[in-house]
């Protein structure tokens, strides 16, 4: 009996240790929030099967995004940089955006999945595109450009900071920004509202994280998305084994760790680049959940001879794990067509573009949510 009691006490002590108390952790060496949850198992796991080749064979594609019944591909081309296709037929609808020095041209190929916002305005689809080198914001009328087969684009702001690591359009005058600071040892988050900078407590805490002077500040790099519906920001760390969630109003925050121990920035600094772990590659936000592409492989192996097949991890907007989707092939980005219930995947190393039927999985998720409510 005493042994049972001891076991229970030890178990509860361990759970308390792994729960939300991060007071003893140094915020300079851990880019985390006050509430930390450790997730090592998912309620549901599915091995994706029966992949289908999309038939897309375009040289120079590097990422893509799905919105309603269209897919936009970003390519390395200087003219017609974005290629747009209909779904599910994949009919070519046009090529748009040019690289150049003109006021309505871009400095380099803009991502369709990062530092860009797709949103419906007055029934038409608009794309807000941040130019990394020029520090300007452009607005592309996607539907109008498709309809008239010519570029409908306007300049929204030409005085934004250059070389922002993360950029999110919150509204027409308000932007979330992340830039280098403190002698290139920190990456600083703030809200830019008509040129005025503010930050809430959550941002201030994350901004404390730093690398040692002279070290590569990309250890702190993230891919950041905003759920417009929930007003929650998701930060996916490329080289750290955790994800940060926090609301714009500062009332909700959570760190989700994918292992039993948080990655320590100082310990990562002590590793040569080849030995560091490439944790995540992509993130997408949806109404009911968000998903991250989990790589979790040493950099040298990932770049040369990938061995671990990746997984797509889905979480609800409270940070709770929902589903792990195990992939049968290597990918670098993904997105979901909710009209056809299909998952599209792309791999930048092989140029392979596949899709998977998610009908049964999404139906099960909906039924589980209905029962839980």
Automatic annotation (TrEMBL):
| The species this protein was found in | Rhodonellum psychrophilum GCM71 = DSM 17998
**Keyword vocabulary terms for this entry:** Signal
Q: Name one Pfam family in it.
A: TolB_like
Extract the signal peptide range: 1-21
Protein name as it appears in the record: Lipoprotein
